[in-house]
Automatic annotation (TrEMBL):
It is found in: Periplasm. Keywords: Iron, Iron-sulfur, Metal-binding. The keyword Cell division does not apply. The keyword NADP does not apply. One of its GO terms (molecular function) is metal ion binding. This is ABC transporter substrate-binding protein.
Length: 494
């Protein structure tokens, strides 16, 4: 295969590189595949050997081999959040891609807050330290000018990974996780999204049905609280004061009551009656939570539920496998996934600003994007296609302990179906997760420096609310003022 020279935005000739070694089919190779992973190692024993073996086609191997002959010796550099899915992707990549292509990979894993700091430094200096950026969807407006759109690359058949099938990526993720104002910025990579989880044993004991509406959700939380607390509390939130998790928690109730962060014409929506109703509802739920809830972020919330301390909760989908893992859970087989309660009302996106999409299932997805300042455009694109291909995505999901998938076809894969049982790394929450992605997804505003506004203002004000330092209206007025000032300073999304 002939690889055409490609000129990127900087008009310099780009080379291409990729990475990852082939997965050994033998037992020794399979044992090594889980090295360095915690949760995936516990899940490993529950999966058949074939679940980890690459199902790459000969055409795909040939493509990577020919790419490697041209770009062998190159090293790609990328940075992603340190999560079980990212560790699984990295593990597969480091073992397979260099062997297939001769292209090396340097992959940094960092906490989310350190990633944005590193990316901002790299893009501001245009140093080209990284070839690929991990972009949380909330960073898209800030990073849009610093990445190379894959839309142009998708048009070149000579650098198309066989069977990549871009239309297979779930539409709502392409639109809300990897695009800004209709411009494709990256390839969807992961999708934490809010789903409901409930203790079937607790609800059965009290004769309660899983809630399907917001009033029912509050009723169940109160009923459990009155009957079983402090042994089992009604619910638990991700209420850590000053943490972005608290903003995510609040957003579900805000959107679920028909509110939004912004109305149309860039006007903040915190003085709407729907916002006040949402925060009052949230505080009512707080009366049914363990005392430590205001110190727990999303991980703390999940651990609390896994320890059997709450009956229902709205959690990130990626945490569900924890509940079936006996190494960390006391409720193995007792937690059930379910759709989030129906919204009381839902404001249409046309009545919001900055691309905000109300929906109770808040999404925290991310994409991988090619830096405009890297020197390896074509190798980075080849690697990105391979990394997000169907086969690698499925294997990383299983090795990563049941992390959510971003492709339609992967949810139908036999290897995923086989894991829909009570085991570490379960995928039995995937049907609920896919429904949330397709039909219930909520996505925050695409506003420049949104993460700064959310973390340094909204999270702080909401923290004061849940710790009793100020009331609902004081909180909403402060958030309205901060949002208005932010829009005045930074303007729109582009």
């Amino acid at each position: 295969m002939h690889f055409l020279p490609f000129r990127g935005d900087s008009q310099r000739r780009m080379s291409r590189r990729g990475f990852l070694r082939q997965c050994a089919a033998g037992a020794a190779g399979m044992a090594g595949l889980g090295a360095g992973l915690s949760m995936p190692l516990r899940a490993f024993g529950q999966l058949s050997l074939s679940s980890y073996v690459s199902r790459m086609t000969e055409d795909q191997r040939r493509f990577l081999g020919e790419a490697g002959r041209r770009y062998s010796g190159t090293t790609l550099r990328l940075i992603t959040e340190d999560t079980p899915p990212s560790r699984a992707y990295r593990d597969i990549a480091l073992r397979e891609f260099p062997a297939l292509t001769g292209i090396g990979v340097s992959w940094e894993l960092l906490p989310l807050d350190r990633i944005i700091a590193n990316i901002v430094q790299d893009s501001s200096s245009k140093s080209g330290r990284y070839d690929l950026y991990y972009l949380d969807h909330s960073w898209l407006a800030s990073m849009a000018d610093h990445v190379y759109s894959p839309a142009r690359l998708l048009m070149h058949p000579d650098i198309a990974y066989p069977g990549f099938d871009f239309p297979d990526f779930i539409d709502t993720l392409v639109e809300n996780v990897a695009s800004l104002d209709g411009r494709l910025l990256g390839i969807p990579f992961d999708i934490p999204i809010l789903i409901m989880v409930y203790r079937k044993d607790v609800l059965e004991e009290l004769g309660l049905k899983p809630p399907s509406t917001l009033p029912e959700y509050l009723h169940v939380a109160r009923a459990v609280q009155e009957s079983m607390a402090p042994r089992v509390f009604g619910t638990v939130g991700q209420w850590k004061a000053g943490h972005y998790a608290l903003v995510c928690d609040m957003s579900a109730w805000l959107w679920g009551h028909g509110g939004s962060f912004f109305r149309n014409n860039s006007i903040p929506g915190f003085l709407d009656v729907e916002a006040a109703e949402a925060l009052h509802y949230m505080l009512e739920l707080g009366t049914c939570m363990p005392p430590g809830a205001t110190a727990w972020d999303w991980d703390g919330q999940a651990r609390c539920f896994a320890q059997g301390n709450a009956a229902i909760a709205i959690v990130w989908s990626e945490h569900f496998p924890m509940f079936d893992d006996p190494a960390v859970s006391s409720i193995v087989g007792l937690a059930e996934p379910a759709p989030c309660p129906r919204e009381i009302a839902l404001r249409p996106p046309s009545q919001t600003s900055f691309g905000e999409k109300p929906g109770i299932s808040h999404q925290g997805g991310s994409c991988l994007a090619i830096s405009r300042y890297g020197r390896n455009l074509i190798p980075a694109w080849v690697f990105l296609q391979w990394l997000t291909s169907k086969d690698v995505s499925v294997r990383a999901s299983l090795l990563g302990g049941g992390a959510s998938l971003v492709r339609n076809c992967c949810y139908l894969d036999q290897r995923i179906e086989e894991q829909k049982r009570v085991v570490p790394g379960t995928t039995r929450h995937y049907d609920v997760t896919l429904d949330a992605i397709r039909n219930r997804l909520g996505s925050g505003p695409n506003l420049r420096n949104w993460h700064t506004l959310a973390e340094r203002s909204f999270a702080v004000e909401l923290g004061r609310l849940v710790t009793g330092q100020q009331d609902v209206m004081q909180t909403l007025r402060a958030m309205q003022t901060a949002a208005s000032a932010h829009v005045s300073k930074f303007g729109g999304s582009v």
